[in-house]
UniProtKB/TrEMBL annotation:
Pfam families attached to this UniProt entry: A24_N_bact (PF06750), Peptidase_A24 (PF01478)
Residue intervals of the Prepilin type IV endopeptidase peptidase domain: 112-219
EC number: 2.1.1.-, 3.4.23.43
Keyword Membrane annotated: yes
UniProt keyword Membrane, yes or no: yes
InterPro entries: Peptidase_A24A_bac (IPR014032), Prepilin_IV_endopep_pep (IPR000045), Prepilin_pept_A24_N (IPR010627), Prepilin_peptidase/N-MTase (IPR050882)
Record-stated family: Belongs to the peptidase A24 family.
Transmembrane segments: 12-35, 89-116, 128-151, 158-178, 198-222, 234-256
Species of the source: Sphingomonas metalli
Protein's job: Plays an essential role in type IV pili and type II pseudopili formation by proteolytically removing the leader sequence from substrate proteins and subsequently monomethylating the alpha-amino group of the newly exposed N-terminal phenylalanine.
Membrane topology value: Multi-pass membrane protein
The protein, known as: Prepilin leader peptidase/N-methyltransferase
GO CC terms: plasma membrane
């Protein structure tokens, strides 16, 4: 079933949000690739990392350019990082799903949630980094959704934000006291708090459970490949929580329809 606010035909929302997702994905990929390296995000034009040639607008069309160029620079033939088209496709899929489940304002909100979560998930996976400059807007937008009357209601969101952040902070503090070293990154409690501000407190246990199951699946997959985890290996909890949180939002909205 669909949640529809009556603004235009329902089929328009997946299309419009999907196209927006391609554009957002192009920017998100740039953020993911440049920011951890300290490179400018907004002021430097896109260029080939091999020959340095500035890319023309026709070479920057999301997904289409990657297909036409076969993922390589047309000047030097260097392979272009596939993360570009992967993030573009991911953002489009996220937005289409949001538009199908909740045409209207709720779908727009869900698409934004998914875009931010995907960006954070990949940043944490690649650099073990959950920047406050993304987590804070995610949290504020979660609060804004409650103020605008989107489900869940504002009190549930507030309890979710407080409970999410406090629970992981306490776990991290206890682990540090017990083992004498950090077991969680400083951004993980903030991210779960931000997720709580979107989903409310009731879904947080499910998010943590699903994140744990995904992590267990990764460990088992590595064991099958003969690459068993050792004690000091780390899994990006932020990535696991982000992967669990967006399907939880889809489920929550779909059940409310």
């Amino acid at each position: 079933m669909l949640i529809h606010d009556g603004i235009g035909p329902a089929w328009v929302w997946p299309v419009v949000l999907g196209l927006a997702g391609l554009l957002i994905g192009s920017f998100a990929a740039t953020v993911i690739l440049r920011w951890p390296e300290g490179r400018s995000i907004a002021r430097v034009r896109s260029a080939c990392d091999g020959c340095g040639r500035t890319l023309k607008p026709a070479e920057l069309v999301p997904l289409v350019s990657a297909v036409i160029s076969r993922g390589r620079c047309r000047s030097c033939g260097m392979r272009i990082d596939p993360l570009h088209w992967q993030v573009e496709a991911g953002c489009a899929i996220i937005a289409i799903a949001a538009g199908i489940v909740a045409p209207g304002l709720a779908g727009v909100a869900g698409a934004i949630l998914g875009w931010l979560l995907l960006t954070l998930a990949v940043l944490d996976l690649r650099a073990f980094w959950l920047p406050d400059a993304i987590v804070a807007p995610l949290a504020l937008l979660g609060l804004a959704g409650g103020v605008l009357g989107l489900a869940p209601d504002l009190p549930d969101r507030l309890w979710g934000g407080l409970g999410g952040r406090a629970s992981l902070w306490l776990i991290a503090a206890g682990y540090r006291r017990w083992r004498g070293r950090d077991g969680l990154g400083g951004g993980d409690p903030k991210l779960l708090g931000a997720i709580g501000l979107w989903l409310g407190w009731r879904l947080l246990p499910a998010v943590l459970l699903c994140a744990g199951l995904i992590g267990l699946g990764v460990v088992l997959f590595r064991m099958v490949q003969g690459r068993a985890m050792v004690r000091d290996d780390a899994l990006p909890l932020g990535t696991l929580m982000a992967l669990a949180a967006y399907p939880a939002w889809l489920m929550m909205v779909g059940m409310a329809a």
